[in-house]
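Severity: low
Component: inverse-folding endpoint
Summary: output formatting inconsistent between runs
Steps to reproduce: submit the following structure tokens with default settings.
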């Protein structure tokens, strides 16, 4: 295993949230162990590209959407590389998606995502934890 202490980002991905649901996608290009598993939209960074720009470009390419504010959720390791995860609220409907990149997309409640996590149907394994973190950002607990 490579040393993950120096962060080298492989991808930037985005948790999309709308009406108490989160968008997941099955990517066509997934490696054998991840085939048919649900993951987050996003993709590989291009040389010199900022991570936020990667997310915006990938959302436009894959889902034909533009998002407003991006919330940095965190950095998560997978396959010996770091993946920057952002969150964004999705306003409006996704009318179509790039079927060359994505096999399927679907909206899931957080409870449903937990079920996918428990049944090992998530691509990287940390998607549920990242969604919980984004939900905390969207709905902060008020302290009395």
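Observed output (run 2 of 3):
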């Amino acid at each position: 295993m490579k040393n993950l202490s120096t962060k080298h980002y492989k991808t930037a991905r985005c948790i999309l949230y709308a009406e108490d649901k989160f968008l997941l996608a099955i990517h066509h290009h997934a490696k054998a162990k991840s085939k048919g598993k649900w993951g987050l939209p996003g993709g590989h960074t291009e040389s010199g590209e900022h991570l936020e720009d990667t997310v915006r470009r990938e959302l436009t390419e894959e889902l034909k959407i533009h998002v407003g504010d991006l919330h940095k959720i965190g950095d998560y390791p997978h396959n010996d590389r770091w993946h920057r995860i952002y969150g964004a609220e999705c306003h409006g409907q996704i009318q179509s998606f790039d079927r060359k990149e994505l096999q399927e997309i679907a909206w899931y409640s957080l409870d449903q995502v937990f079920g996918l996590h428990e049944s090992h149907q998530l691509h990287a394994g940390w998607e549920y934890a990242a969604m919980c973190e984004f939900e905390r950002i969207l709905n902060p607990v008020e302290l009395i």
